[in-house]
Amino acid sequence: MIISSLPLSLPSQLKASDLNANAQPLSATKSKQSEESSTTSASQERNQELSDQRELQKLKNRDTEVRAHELAHVAVGSRYITSGAQFQYQKGSDGRLYAVAGEVSIDTSPVPDDPRATLMKAQVIARAAMAPAVPSAQDRAVAAQASAMIQQARAELALVVSAGQLDGSEQGLDVFA
User: Fold this and answer.
1) What does DSSP assign to residue 97?
2) Percentage of the chain exceeding pLDDT 90
3) Residue 154 Cα distances to 104, 116, 134, 173, angstroms
């Protein structure tokens, strides 16, 4: 069994000072490690900063998109809007709040005893629901509900026209427009 392959005595050419000539002080090694650690830390900080900037930009873009979406509903649905845009927010790394979701309430009830007014209202509701560039699933559902309301109002209006119950001002109304 070999415990050590070093000779018990140093060769005569080696001096104790030669042994330390290639040795680096421990503090120099620590210094290099500290520099590498500092470089790694700075790199990690830059990566984190870039990540924060990307996340902040995503929040800003989403905020713009959400606000434009809800504004499109309000602009088209105007008089049938029952509440302005309401937003859900997320706090960004800069401490500001950014809209990440929103909703607008709209009155989808038919106009009692007036199929013509109901038809016009339902058409506005359908346009308001589909007004944003990218309608959501909820927007499509409201548009479908408005389409059903349009069909119902047209059917009621056709019955009224066929029964001759319209006054003279409504004789030129196109039920299927």
Assistant:
1) E
2) 59
3) 27, 8, 28, 11
